[in-house]
Design goal:
By secondary structure, this protein is of the alpha+beta class. The protein has 3 helices and 12 strands. Strands 1, 3, 5, 8, 9, 10 and 12 form a 7-stranded mixed β-sheet that branches. A 5-stranded mixed β-sheet has the order 2-4-11-6-7, with no helix packed on it.
Length: 220
């Protein structure tokens, strides 16, 4: 047994550490009230990272056939929760204007703190907002009473494995967005899980090597 083989085994085992995928998109709004287009399948999970700076954020997407929409808001755990809320509207084709589909009440919204081992962060999550949409153009607005604060808008629930190193980069993107240093990566199971494997493999190798040395001495 050689140490090189142990590290090859580690590389082979790395994908087993990825049980959830992240697809973060940093939404940088330079023009107040501008609209961010959401393309692709609405079923695939994506995390839109945004920071309100005195104005709400607006997302727009087009539905071509009957589709279930899953939305959820998240924020970094804090003693002072930011009262984020969202409202979903459909643009009227004929008479103009919009029709409200639904909204979350920022006063009554329930926020659940969940520690995410993969992110190495504890996040507060709102109740999911799920609705089936007919074909049309829709917009989602994220806001607070004073429109200040960092949030995550989660769209969709289906995770797609992007590969270990891509997921590692995605985790870092989310941590960095919330002002966490590189050392915070040590709190992510994407990092400490492989480190644990490395330590275990080294212990196994050293134990095997010591036994080989003892066996060679006994046969000398």
């Amino acid at each position: 047994m050689k140490l090189n083989y142990l590290f090859l085994l580690l590389i082979f085992l790395l994908p087993t550490a990825t049980t959830q995928a992240y697809n973060p998109v940093i939404n940088i709004v330079t023009v107040p009230y501008s609209v961010t287009a959401v393309g692709g399948s609405l079923s695939l999970q994506r995390e839109f990272l945004g920071e309100l700076k005195n104005d709400p954020h607006m997302y727009e997407f087009v539905v071509g056939s009957s589709t279930e929409l899953y939305l959820r808001l998240a924020q970094l755990e804090s003693d002072k929760l930011v009262p984020f809320s969202l409202i979903l509207v459909q643009q009227n084709e004929n008479r103009g204007g919009v029709t409200e589909i639904g909204r979350t009440n920022n006063v009554k919204a329930k926020w659940e703190p969940i520690h995410d081992d993969l992110l190495g962060l504890t996040m507060d999550y709102s109740d999911p907002f799920v609705v089936t949409l007919k074909p049309g153009v829709y917009r989602v607005e994220v806001s607070t009473p004073d429109n200040v604060g960092k949030y995550v808008l989660i769209v969709g629930q289906e995770s797609v494995d992007n590969g270990y190193f891509s997921e590692l980069s995605n985790v870092r993107t989310i941590q960095s967005f919330f002002g966490k240093s590189m050392f915070s990566m040590l709190k992510s199971s994407y990092v400490y899980y492989p480190i644990g494997i490395v330590v275990l493999l080294i212990v196994i190798y050293q134990t095997w090597r010591r036994r080989q040395q003892i066996s060679n001495i006994n046969h000398a």
